Structures are given as structure tokens and as C-alpha cells.
Write the C-alpha cells for this entry.
Amino acid sequence: MSVELSETTLRYGDGPVVLDGLTESIQPGEFVALLGASGCGKSSLLNVLAGLLEPTGGSVEVPDDGAAFMFQDPTLLPWLTAQDNVELALRLAGVPRAERSGRARELIDLVQLGHARTKKPHEMSGGMRQRVALARALAQRRRLLLMDEPFAALDAITRDMLHEELRAIWQRTGMTIVFVTHNVREAIRLAGRILVLSSHPGRVIDTRTITDDFRADPARAAALAAELTDVLRKEQFKHEHLDR
Amino acid sequence: MSTLIDERSRTGPDPEGAIAPPARSSASRPRRGALARAWSKAAPPLAAVVVLVSLWQIAAWASPMRDDLFPGPGAVLATAGRVVGDGTLPSAAATSLWRGLSGFAVALVIATPLALALAHAPWLRRAVGPLVSALQVLPSVAWVPAAIIVFGLTDATIYAVILLGAIPSIVNGLLAGIDMIPGQYRALSHVLGARRLQHILLVELPAALPGYVSGLRQGWAFSWRSLMAAELIAVGGSLGLGVGSLLQRGRDLADLGLVALIILVILAIGIVVELLVFAPWERRLLAGRGLSPKGADA
């Protein structure tokens, strides 16, 4: 078991129910995309998995060592260089001082930023900053990586490159990834399984398994993208009009 | 993970390209020498000083008042020569600077943990926060009589007034810096597994540093003002002669030249500390984060 949700419910104070009795199991090494319309509660679910929010009902099990987390915003510390941002994560993960520099160097190289290790966040592009954030997430050495729309603010070409790198890293590490997105094509491109969340309250309304063969067939992938986009459009409409 | 990294240690040029830092982006502009840049910065305030001193001299010539009641720059310069020559002014300035700096350092040591405690204990902040803000508004000179009664004419009086003047500013500056930290940093510390003390030392304090420096700058200004107020009133006893005491001596002797000179010295010391310590520190701090200090050259 990597992640186990059992009747997980979340609501903020007396507000509406955000997550309504989610029951789902994510196996070790899976790459799962949480797909949903904006505001459906997918980021809240990720925060619950990360321990940033306490569920108001049900239970959540994650690996004993917790989860690494990658925010939508890179959240790099502006006074630290790329190398130092990664070293901070290593330090907090308990890596001995003597090993940190070498490890950080390897991780920075892994995300292809070897030439920019001494740059500070304001000296890097959005894509570079997200690469550093990815290196920092990997530095936490956790078996579960939670990613909250990490590439949403990037241009299409950069996003495309980072998709490839993320897939390669996932295949090599065998870590479990839960990836939140509202981008249907991104979900199909990356994930082995897509969980589609409804809006208000958030429930899993559809599950799709994506194989490499399926991904390699543009016609089938496009048809699924159109189908899921239609589902999301209806959910978005419901969220914007019926919930008022 | 290390196995993975061993397998894949490829590096290459970043296809996205980096955003060049502002300092480098201006490399194509014509380079000016450091001297020329310094001159372009110093010229406007120097010109203002020359104009003001000239106006002062003209007013002194034109004034029907006696020279000792309205001394011109020349008379003040002559007084400066006298008190510098006999060692009075250097000694007083050194005494005041030492008191100001050491008092400020002690204020820093007390105010920093106090601000952190207030930031992390909401009930304490609700209880003490308004009092700290109120103390910042209270003129330091109001503390002098009480300090003299409690500590007598000793250095303790001076330091008590400095601390009461500087601590509230430093506390409020650091608190403001902490309040402005993006909430995401706390979440980041949590997911990175930071313990509370690690979060404070490695994330919170560095993130709050710009606000902290503003608080320190204001704290220094309050230290200096408080010191002058204390030295002006608390004279005699075991107290050494400071710049403020020299000001009081000028008043007692009805020596307006000395009074004007000491006012200028007090002003000059404040400006020198600002220009040599706080301004470069803040500039370097903000530039290191890709920010520009207010009023900086574009």
C-alpha cells in the first residue's frame, strides 16, 4: 500500500463539503493523476495527503516517511541559490553535512540545471525554477511525491520538456506520484491512472487506466481527451451555475 | 535515489534560458567609472549642503544680531577647531558612539527573541503587542527623569533610555517582517520536515530579514535619539562627557557656536552610520533577492 483513502471527508468549518467520502487505493509505484475542474477540491485532497490539512472524517494512510510535495508555485527561498535550496531539503531530511553538497549537485544535474546551480530564483526562468523545485522534492527521498499542478504556469514547450523529464524520473525511481491537474492532455500524457473528481462535493466519478500503448495511439488519446474534457466542462458548469 | 543519479548524470544547456540578472542586463550600456558613479550620487546632496551653508553665511552677514547670538559657518568652524584641538569633541563623540552602539547591540539581543516569542504566541502578542507599539510612540526623553531616579547619574541611566527607545522599534520591525512572510513558506517547512526551531532559523528569520533590517535601522535611529536625550539631561555624577552633554555645556555657556557645531556632529554621525552600515546592507540584501530598495536608481 502506498496511499489508502477510506471514506475521507473534508469541509472547511461550517462551509460546504469539499471532499465527500473518498475511498481509493493507490499502489506503490503508481503514477496517478487527479483530474478535476477548478475548485473541485483536488488540491485540498493533496494537502490532506501531505498532512497540511486534517480530514474531517474517514481516514488517510500514507507511507510512514510521509510525502514529498511540489507546489504549483515553485516556492523557492529567494535568498538561496538553486544548489542551496536543494541542500536545505537534504539538511531537513537528515542527510549528513558532508554528503549534502554532492547529493544536491547530482539532483541539480538530474533536472538538467548543472549550469545554473549558483543562480538565485530571480535569475531563473519559470521552467528552471520548477526544475529546482522538482530536484528539491526528490531530495526529500520519500516514496510518495505529491504534485499540485506544478507545470500549470509554464509555457507549452517548457511543460512538454518537463513532462518527459518527469516520466523518465518516475520510471527510474519507481516512486509513487500523485499529480493534480485540470489539464486533460497532461493527465493522459503522464499518468497510468486518472481519477476524475466531481465538483462540490469532490468525489471520484470516473477512473481511467492509461497504458503506454494507449498513449502511443494519438487517435485514441485524442478521443479520451475529448471525452474527459466534456465531463470536466459539465462539472465546471455545475460548479459555476448549479452550486450558487 | 543515488543509484538513479549515478545512472543519469547528464547535464546540458538549459533550453529555456535564464533570466539575466538586472546588473548583467545593463552590461551593454556605456560603462562609467566607479568614481563617476560615486560623484553622480554624491553631487546632489553636496550641492544642497553648499547652498545651505552659503545661505547661512549670507544670513549671518546680513543679520543685525551679534555674532555670538547668530554665528555664521566661519565662527562654527573656529569653534570646531578649538574643541577638536583640545580633544573634547573626539572624546565626547567616541563616548557617545560607544554608548549608542553597545546599547543598540544589547537592544538587538533582547528584542529579537522577544519579537519571535510574540510572533509565535498569539495570546502573548494580543497581551503585549499594543504595549510595544505604544512604547514606540512614547518620546524617549520621557524616560530620562525616571531612569535618573532609579539609576542615578550613571551609565545605567543612559543605557536604560537607549533600550526603552530601541527595543520597541526592533520588535515591531521583525514582527512586520514575519507577518509579511508568504504562508506557503510554512507549508514548505512542513513538507520538508522542518522542526519548529529549524523553521524559525532556516526559513522564517531569513525570510523576515528585509523587515528586520528596516526595524534595526529604525532601532538605531531611536537609540541615537534616546542617547542624545539622556546625555542632554543626565549630566554629572560618574557620567562621562558625551556629545549630548557637550550640547548642554554649550547651552550653559550661551555658546551658540558650540551648540550649532554639536547639532551638526549629531546629524553627521547619524548620516554616516546610515550611509556606511544600513543603506549598503539593505541594498545588498534586496539585490540578492531580486528586489530594489525604494528610491534606488533604475
